[in-house]
Amino acid sequence: MRCPFCLHMDSKVLDSRQTEEGGSIRRRRECIACHRRFTTYERLDEMPFLVAKKDGRREAFSRTKILNGILRACEKRPISSETIERAVDEIEREVRSNLEQEVTSDYIGELVMDKLRAIDDVAYVRFASVYRQFKDIDSFVVEVEQLRKER
Ligand SMILES: [Zn+2]
Prior knowledge:
With 151 residues, the chain is of the alpha+beta class. The protein folds into 2 domains: 1-47; 48-150. 45% of the residues lie in helices and 21% in strands. It has 5 helices and 6 strands, in the order E-E-E-E-E-H-H-E-H-H-H. The protein has helices spanning 63-74, 81-96, 105-119, 121-131, 137-150, and strands at residues 11-18, 24-31, 37-43, 50-52, 58-60, 102-104. The strands form 2 sheets. A 3-stranded antiparallel sheet has the order 1-2-3, with no helix packed on it. A 3-stranded mixed sheet has the order 5-4-6. Helix 1 (63-74) packs across helix 4 (121-131). The radius of gyration is 19 Å and the shape is elongated. Bound molecules: zinc ion (ZN). Residues 3, 5-6, 8, 31, 33-34, 36 line the site of zinc ion.
């Protein structure tokens, strides 16, 4: 974000919060060149948000991708589309309220698993098995046992 005083290209984020209407993020920034502070308002849908993948590549944050992953996990489960939409909304909000404009795919995966765990056991295990890439039946069993203990 360009400094409005000296036009330096880099600033650091001091504070980040969602506005009351929820449609934008207010960020308090400090220019790393002149150290003056300024505030920006960024609309959620206009913010470039990056996801760092395990192989080091980066891609734009995609709500659709999260939605598709969750839909796949929830296939043929008794879960309403409202529940799924709400989960995706909450995940998106959480991701975008981060101080940094970049998160890891691991972080998003964990958020999705947290949500699914609360929604449906089967959907959770399905997603976890893809996401955690269970290498053998044992690691799969460990995850399911863990889930059973929590119930
Ligand atoms: Zn500056």
